[in-house]
Amino acid sequence: MSHFDFRQPPFDVLTPYERELVAKAADIVFFPAGATVLEPTQTAEFLYVVIKGIVREMAEEETVAVFRHNDSFDTRALIAGHSPHRFEVYEEALLFTLPRSLILQLIESNAVFAAFFFQTVAEKFTALAQQRTQNPELQNLLTARVREVTARAPVFLEGDATVLHAAQAMKQHKVKSLLIRHNQEVGIFTVSDFRDVILAGHGADVPLAKLAHFSLICCDIDDYLFNALLTMTHHTVQRVVVTEQGKPVGVLEQIDLLSYFSNHSHLIAQQLERTVSLPALVPVAQQIDKLVHILSGHGVKAPQLAKLVQTLNGQLFARAWELIAPPELIAHSCLVVLGSEGRGEQILKTDQDNALIVADDCPLTMAEITQITQHFSEALDQFGYPPCPGGVMLSREAWCKTVSAWQDTIYEWVNLPREDSQMNLAIFTDAHAVAGDRSLLQQIKTSLSEHLDSSDMFFHHFARAVLQFDTPLGLFGQLLSHEENGVATLDLKKGGIFPLVHGLRALALQYHLPETNSFDRLTVLAQQGHIESQLAQDCNEALSFLLTLRLQQGLIALGVGAPASNLIEPKRLSTLERDLLKEAFSVVKRFKSSIRHHFHLGGL
Amino acid sequence: MFKALQQQWAKRKLRDPRWEILFQADDEEWVSVDCETTSLNIAEAEILSIGAVKVRGNRILSSESFYRVVKPSINPDAASVSIHGLRPLDVSQGISCEQAVSELLEFIGGRGLLGYYLEYDVAILNKTVKPLIGCKLPQRQLEISALYYDWKIQQNVGANIDLRLQTILDELHIPTLARHDALNDAITAAMIYQAMQVRKPKRPFG
User: Fold this and answer.
1) How many CB pairs under 8 A join A and B?
2) Are A279 and A323 in contact (CB under 8 A)?
3) ipTM
4) CB distance A29–B62 less than 8 Å?
5) Which CATH number does B16-196 carry?
């Protein structure tokens, strides 16, 4: 019978026979608004699957979870016998009921189905990640074009240039192949041809026209990368000449191609290394965005992606700083990135968050330095990092100071807690050095630790921000009531990311962890026993999921020309994603309450 | 009083005492029933399939549902196939109409019948029921579109109430089931019944 929808997880994994069992056992129940489906102490005899309507899971007066079309509940109650929560109908609901005995039977017979029920929060997240990687990855591999790799610019030599010239040119341009112009023809001369030169006993003065291969293996710049790879495999060559309208415009190395398919970031790194002017850095900066798109489509998860972007951004900033700042300033200062950039959790470009720590013995005056930092800030703007609206930029006086001035500032932030000093301190705690003398940042962090040890009240104030925003599941519930008029949205940052990040930051400060990345902080905190390991693992997965979700939404927004934001529409998520979001938020709740106890924040 | 007499009269005409179960009225449960037929003209229509589902309290017992495909004496024409999706090939596997109706009666027992445009389904069924057991379907009958009408008319006295199935489903926010077949239609009718239970019009007396 077809009245049961088997397209939705977890029922989509059932075998035809199991589906028949489910279809035969499924009853439909109707509940008016306000009715209670399951009482806290009541034995759970059924798994309920929502056909229509909304059911809320309530802990006392607080909404813990919301179930809509195709959502099922309550897996916990089914396994444990009963749930501590009450399941209440919010909007008139039609539900399928599946007997507990049947579900237990299916759990026994179908491992994948069982996984859905038994998965700890962490495992559930992994399932989604796997599901998500399946199709887009393949699609991207098949549809990426040669142009996206931006092949290396070709280095041309004339046919009468010699083998020696070739060797010099390759060394100078750091390339492995040269294009040789001779009699209106273009040939290629590669590193491996040197071997043949030596074997044949030629001297270094032989003209390249005699040695180059004039039957070029080419691919068009708009051809699929996949075809370029096939061409290389077919001709057993390591590179193809990229042509645009028949003219050679670049050389595509197999190594570049392969690394693109695995992780094409090193191309950008190489380009950064080779770039000699600021304007030339702009397209490289744009490539970082493109890389994010591609890798995200390849199923790379947000935390890994963020670390990669942090590295690349770091190199970009360092290169730009090298091109702008004089060597004596670079040697006597430390360029740091702050906030999410410093934690290595920023993926899509937002505004600049950076600072400069100047050594006390720097030969330049502050006025001179300000000119340089302003130039740098403008350059970042060109790269796509708009100025920070809050003014957290090294071009501002407040964020460009000598070591001793920084130490005074830190003292004030810790001991004169004001609204913005808390925030500034939070931003600074995540500082990560990208260029110059890294020991300067270390000095300041050390003095920060010392100040903190003498100020107990500090942590109490600092950690309180974790509780600043409402519990996300409550938020979810509240939004429901506005759903009919406007679009129901939910703030991922306020609801989940910020509490996790800030709580971990507070703990990291308290235990003097040098780590700035939230995931690294979690690992170390768990290792040192400051966070229970299950909670740490759950937080890890929850944060990873939230960041990935934010990234996806951001990429979609950028795709239609809108700015990336923290707001998402729960309605647009798949059932599994919503399920995971609920789980993630319930993890955030657990984390918040453990932070509340840890820092004695009281029942707020 | 009059109804009771009528029932007794009908009961006496029973050919087989085993059908007495049909007269043992069950006030707790209902059966939602729907037939797919070759035609909408009662005189010439033949049953192609019968779907039925029990309703107990707020529960639609789709796990105890009834579905039979019937082999008609003439093949369904193309126009009706497009509605019910039962091709000549499908119904050729069916059982006889008498067999299907007899099994349906056992399934229904003394439960009341409910349906959308139930009058039609009952009339079609009675064409077989009467010769089979000696009387027409004796169970109480509940027309769900009437429930809907009563509710709507009270909100908007004198209005013209649109009783098309899709309108009712939309108004009550009832999901459309995957396939248009007798059983799903019976389940749909049962869902309308459930939705109407919380929308009973207020009556001045009782």
Assistant:
1) 59
2) no
3) 0.76
4) no
5) 3.30.420.10
